[in-house]
């Protein structure tokens, strides 16, 4: 007989499972960690999730391990360990209806959950305007969190209470309007036009009042910061290399942009890997027409923009054959 799934998870890949008996119900709860960075609580043979908690602020959010200690779930991802208190309002961060209808049995008594600028929380957890009547928009994270100058890009804004109608939502990055907006209750995707210079701006999501599935969405702005940056190079290790060797370029904002090209003294260096603070490339074999020594500046090209670093010199030397 074919196995029957105990819980159907669409568009998600489950990587870890834990069983929790501490939620006060007659049936054990399942805690599911996913490749997409979600922690889901459900029950055996249930058709719905009690909550879906999204890990925030990371590019690689895949759940690599989970360990529960009493009523706290520790979730391991590529960037660190996240602590998720299971007996708290916090787990209903994206779902207003679940938040205000939840009754959480906490060590100090049953918690009444409500909505505030920090998301779902108890009165003690919320700093700003705790209430249970309407859902106000919140920005949890923006990906990417920064952009190169002169770069158009698609931006994903994760949060809550955005509604579902493009006509009811306006997104601005400073004075720039984010175009071609697609809206879901917990995510906005839009196209951002390039800036001409380095800047830090406010991202504002303005949602007009509406009602969706019985949830009243208040007319309010959610605000977060966004940066336009240029790459910087602080060093080349080493500045004297023969051809075919690994060259490490260090700096900041080196993972941004696409179509990356590195030129060392005007000669392409084949990029092998990069992160925000380093680029590793392989120096090219020198053509026979070179003189014994060839040197010049370091230049990085991202997308269509070239960033020269004249103060950093790279020098090739022809191999010396002895005997």
Describe this structure in words.
It is a single chain. Helices cover 2% and strands 53% of the residues. The chain is an all-beta fold and 323 residues long. The chain has an eight-stranded mixed beta sheet with strand order 23-25-28-27-26-29-30-24, with no helix packed on it. Strands 13-22-19-15-16 form a five-stranded mixed beta sheet, with no helix packed on it. The N and C termini lie far apart (77 Å).
Secondary structure topology:
Elements: E1 14-20, E2 29-34, E3 38-43, E4 51-54, E5 65-69, E6 72-77, E7 80-85, H1 96-101, E8 103-106, E9 109-112, E10 114-116, E11 119-121, E12 138-143, E13 146-148, E14 153-160, E15 169-173, E16 176-177, E17 179-184, E18 187-192, E19 199-207, E20 210-212, E21 215-217, E22 220-229, E23 232-237, E24 240-241, E25 246-252, E26 261-264, E27 267-274, E28 278-282, E29 293-302, E30 305-317
Parallel strand pairs: 13-22, 24-30
Antiparallel strand pairs: 1-2, 2-3, 3-4, 5-6, 6-7, 8-9, 10-11, 12-14, 14-18, 15-16, 15-19, 17-18, 19-22, 20-21, 23-25, 25-28, 26-27, 26-29, 27-28, 29-30
